Amino acid sequence: MAVSPHCTRCSAAEEDAIHCLRDCPHYREIWLRVGALSWPRFLINGCTDWVRAQAQGRNGTRFVACLWGIWKWRNNMLFEEVGWSVGEAWRRLCNEHDDIERFMNGEDDVNDDSWMARRWKAPPEGHVNLCVDGSGCSLLSEARALKLGLQVAWDRGYRDVICNTDCSDLLKALEDDERRQFLPILGEIRDLTSRSWNVSLSGISRDCNLPADWLAKKGAASPSMDLCLLDNPPSELEILIIRDRLAFP
Ligand SMILES: [Zn+2]
Predict the structure, then answer these.
(1) Each residue of 107-159: pLDDT tens digit?
(2) Structure pTM?
(3) Residue 156 in 3-state DSSP?
(4) Which of 8, 165, 231, 242 gives the lowest tally of CB atoms within 10 Å of its CB?
(5) CA of 202 to the centre of ligand 1 (A)
(6) How many angstroms is it from 189 CA to the middle of ligand 1?
(7) How far is the CA of 243 from the centre of ligand 1 (A)?
(8) pLDDT one-digit tens code per residue, 23-69
(9) Residue 14 C-alpha to ligand 1 middle, in angstroms?
(10) If you measure from the C-alpha of residue 13 to the centroid of ligand 1, how many angstroms do you get, rounded to a whole number?
(11) What is the whole-number distance in angstroms between the Cα of residue 56 and the centre of ligand 1?
(12) Where are the beta strands (DSSP E) in the chain?
């Protein structure tokens, strides 16, 4: 424990247990991210009562993972040279939460909504997952990538395809009649998806789309404009694919 009674991260005069674990503004970010402020009895007084009520409540596993994560983050800041950012602390505790879930319930029996770490999800048996990404952030490059990806999937004979993009603007634009008129490629994508195949289109976070992101950047740096199909991934890409497969966020 720190020798001084003051909180070293904010101006609070006393760093008691509840300040350290819940009330310090520095750690509030974690509770905000996990949505704890709407949990029943989250703001009650008394550290022991609070821990007991939350650990036994509906969000018990998340609560315990956050508590443990915050404690480790505090110690990291006090005792280690390089302090974690809030993103780093969050990433670590999400992984630990998922480890607890995995240990208690088994990988396959955990409800999809229960995971905290953002992860790529394997498609169901018999489906192909098409992850697309454009270079830069323009809608046009995202749309081109999607169209090309759908075309390749169709030409290869895949008929059950789950297509993911991290561009939510593209998904919105595809539903917007006016924008489709303005950008003809959107209509071409709609035509492709209306063919007789089973294709769904949904958004994923950028963290779950890293292999496609890597390929988009690689393609943008290449002088050639030709379509390049790789049968095997280059080693840098392979690492990202293995990471997805192991579901490390
Ligand atoms: Zn504080």
Answers:
(1) 677 776 777 877 777 888 999 999 999 887 689 999 999 999 999 999 999 99
(2) 0.60
(3) coil
(4) 231
(5) 41
(6) 52
(7) 36
(8) 998 889 999 999 999 999 999 999 999 999 999 999 999 999 999 99
(9) 8
(10) 9
(11) 26
(12) 128-132, 160-165, 198-203
What separation in Å is there between the alpha carbon of 18 and the centre of ligand 1?
A: 10
Sheet holding 128-132, edge to edge: 128-132, 160-165, 198-203
Residue 97 burial (CB < 10 Å; 0-12/13-18/19+)? Answer: buried
Cα of 59 vs centre of ligand 1, distance in Å, is 24
The separation between CA 138 and the C-alpha centre of its own chain, rounded to angstroms, equals: 21
Exposed, middle or buried: residue 170 (CB in 10 Å: 0-12, 13-18, 19+)?
A: buried
Q: Three-state SS across 199-242?
A: EEEEECCHHHCHHHHHHHHHHHHCCCCCCCCCCCCCHHHHHHHH
Both structure tokens of 58:
């509906």
Instruction: Report how far ligand 1's centroid is from the alpha carbon of 19 (Å).
Output: 6
pLDDT of residue 249: 44
What are the structural domains of the chain?
17-114 (no CATH), 128-245 (3.30.420.10)
Tokens 């990806």: give the residue: 149
Residue 173, token pair as written in the block: 């634009």
Which residue's structure tokens are 């953002």?
A: 118
What's the length of the chain?
A: 249
